[in-house]
Amino acid sequence: MPGGLTAYLRSLIAAEGPIPVSRFMAEALGHPEHGYYRTRDPLGAAGDFVTAPEISQVFGELIGAWCAVVWEQAGRPDPVHLVELGPGRGTLMADALRALAMVAPAFDAAAALHLVETGPTLRAAQAAALGARPRWHETIEALPAGPMILVANEFFDALPVHQLVRRGAAWHERLVGCDRASAAFCFEVSDRPSTLETPRIDAAAGDILEVGPAREAVAAEIARRIAAHGGGALIVDYGHGASAVGDTLQAMRGHGYAAALEAPGEADLTAHVDFAALARAAGDAGAGGVAVFGPATQGGFLRALGIEARTGALAAAAPDAKAREAVAGGASRLTDPWQMGSLFKALALIHASQPPPPGFEANGAP
Questions:
Q1: Do the domain assignments include residue 189?
Q2: Taking Cα atoms as reference points, which of 60, 91, 47 lies closest to residue 334?
Q3: Cβ neighbours of residue 58 under 8 Å, at least 6 residues apart?
Q4: Is 128 left (phi over 0), alpha (psi -120 to 50) or beta?
Q5: CA 159 to CA 337: how far, in whole Å?
Q6: Peptide bond into 295 cis (omega under 30)
Q7: Element (H, E) at 365
């Protein structure tokens, strides 16, 4: 029950003092008994938000085609691990596999499907969508060794971030405490300067900087595996291309914004992804064995993969005008700059021996 998480966090703060925003976020989303992703299916009209695969089948189909091309560029390893981090309901992978069975049957046959998912409710939804084919894992470290093609769509934004507040020449950790009068959760700032590594960045007093060691650790692990065994990874999420100050912590509940600290375990908590930080972590961990491409805007990336042609074919086969409008509307939502086309971005990690992957040929490696 959500109240159990609130009580747990209050007792934790009473025992240890105010906790970092990252700890609050990690407990709210991933607590083994009460965490948001451990207790529910958050997607769709009955949930709290929708992701790109739920908006249009074309998204998953194009991602599947991207994976097939990267597999070809990697020398067609057989077997190969096809991995998705945070697979939601399995919609993206179901669309990708349906497309692969038609356009890249050799890759489909070579691919051993692995899903990194902690929530039992979502695992059940993934099993319903994908049958007995997947193997599930709690962490990326639990994946078997070998060539890998990995997809992470809206995964990194839900990994915890620390928030730091600028005071003088130093950054101080932003904490979550409890108001003595109301017992409501509230923000505080540590008196001690933070020891966390931060990018060199211009900042004024009171500015907030978000850093994600947990995010960078996952990017580094992906890069190490690709450097050692070959393959590639595609990361799609929302965020900024260059490290920047700003408070982006937000809660989503019932398809609307909610107060970030108000109902831990009952709302999705996310923060914008720092793609520059992911790229640095991956490049450093890859030690010359991994090339980083992007970030590219989601709109530009999907157009380069052929979303317009695929959407046109689906619209032509639609049974009526309403269905055609739905197909076109889904594609517009994914690519238009004022919707998801600019805020969402794509980053690719590719073994250094391979050519640029689809969608990044003109983008280059930073």
A1: no
A2: 60
A3: 307, 310, 311, 314, 330, 331, 334
A4: alpha
A5: 25
A6: yes
A7: none
360/294 Cα distance (integer angstroms): 7
Rounded to the nearest 10 degrees, what angle do helices 120-130 and 91-103 cross at? 20
pLDDT at 44: 61
The helix/strand/coil state of 198 is: coil
Task: Output the DSSP codes for 61-83.
Answer: HHHHHHHHHHHHHTT--SSEEEE
**In the chain, how many domains are there?**
1
CATH code, 334: 3.40.50.12710
DSSP 353: T
The amino acid present at 274, given as its one-letter code, is D
Dihedral, 350, 354, 358, 360 alpha carbons, nearest 10: 70
Is 294 a domain residue?
A: yes
Among the listed residues 307, 112, 162, 148, the one whose alpha carbon sits nearest the alpha carbon of residue 230: 148
Distances (CA, A) of 322 to 145, 327, 329: 47, 9, 10
Judge whether 217 lies within some domain: yes
What's the gap between Cα 181 and its chain centre? 37
Over the stretch 14-57, which tens digit does the pLDDT of each residue have?
Answer: 999 999 999 999 999 998 888 888 877 767 666 666 889 999 99
Residue for token pair 């793609």: 275
Task: Quote the domain boundaries for residue 294.
Answer: 2-158+212-351
**Percent of the residues in the chain that have a pLDDT greater than 70, as a whole number:** 95
pTM over 0.85? The answer is: yes
Kind of pairing, strands 170-178 and 344-351?
unpaired
